[in-house]
Amino acid sequence: MPVSFTKSALLLSLMLGLGQAQATSEPSPSALATRLGIPHPAVIAHRGASFDAPESTAAAYKLARDLGADYLEMDLQRSKDGVLFALHDNNLQRTTDVATKFPERKDSPANEFTIAELKTLDAGSWFNTAYPDRARPGYVGLKILTLDEIIDIAQGNPLHKPGLYIETKEPKQFPGIERDLKDKLQDRGWLSPTGSKLAKSNLAVGQGKGKVVLQTFEKSSLELLEKEMPQVPKILLLWVGEGSIEPKSKVTFAESGDKDKATYYAKQEPKDKAEFQQWVEYAKAQGAIGTGPSAALTKGGDQSYSDLVKPWMNQFTHDQGMLVHVYTIDDAVDYQKVTDAGVDGIFTNRASELLKFYKRPAAASVAQLLQNNGY
Ligand code: G3P
Ligand code: CA
Prior knowledge:
By secondary structure, the protein is α/β, with parallel strands linked by helices. The protein has helices spanning 3-23, 29-36, 58-67, 98-101, 115-118, 125-130, 147-154, 177-187, 196-199, 219-228, 253-256, 261-267, 273-285, 311-319, 332-341, 351-357, 366-372; strands at residues 42-45, 71-78, 84-86, 163-168, 212-216, 234-238, 290-293, 323-326, 345-348. It has an eight-stranded parallel barrel with strand order 1-2-4-5-6-7-8-9, surrounded by eight helices.
């Protein structure tokens, strides 16, 4: 090939390349995730592998870890005596035997219990009753876990080290929890810089740059998380409703006549495009690296909310140089739908299924891994 042609071609391609760079100045979602040390796409084990084992317990987190999930997701609360622990609900009724052990306090918020009191509760048996087809004797008597214990689990498998994906749950109930979280993560060495080689390994998310991701629905908590831990990736969770994106329709569920909440939420949408966009822009301005939007699920159910992962929404978020991690999806049909719409990671209760979908199947079955861990 004549040299002059090569030079011209090179010049032309540089010019074209420059033109492209100007048109899309933000890195691709995949490049952004890699830079942050966040797997792309990311498998976020929602309350652990909580389809197969009681949510937020050692059984669920060990299973998620051993399956090869990228992140152990948790909802963070603080006990009366100041210990950080994982629990989704505001009170203990659904997932523990609080009504038997503390009948007069059964409706009390979990944060009105000391950690010693919380540790007396059985956080596993409810699962056996609710899901007899997935019940196991080993789930009886499982305990509520402290953040320290979840960190131990995350570090406990030499072959796979997942990261932590931590939500400040109802943070207004826990003034200063962002600072407490920082102190704990710092004490445990989870805020220390790490080598770039480790960050590139899917087996060692928990040892790389993206080993912790922080998430919240609350603007004020996002701001405090950014103040306390500016170097840690943060996600602003989104939904349509009070305290988040303003809906187009003000009709309440009770007024709607809809047969269930999933049907109602599926019809809910942001007031307009600008309303959605301003939440994403706000998240970016406060230092978030992405958003965690809800999804409308094909089968409905109590995890089905408004569809906030429409292609234009994901495109807008990507155009801001941000990632999209959607919650909470368990079925292949929906994995495919949100993937086609452009998301960068999925919260799932079924880490085993999502790993299969992403062509990263676990080396052993759910049953085998549960048995290996004594359940
Ligand atoms: O944290 C993302 C997702 O978990 C939000 O829903 O209510 O399960 O915490 P929730
Ligand atoms: Ca959560």
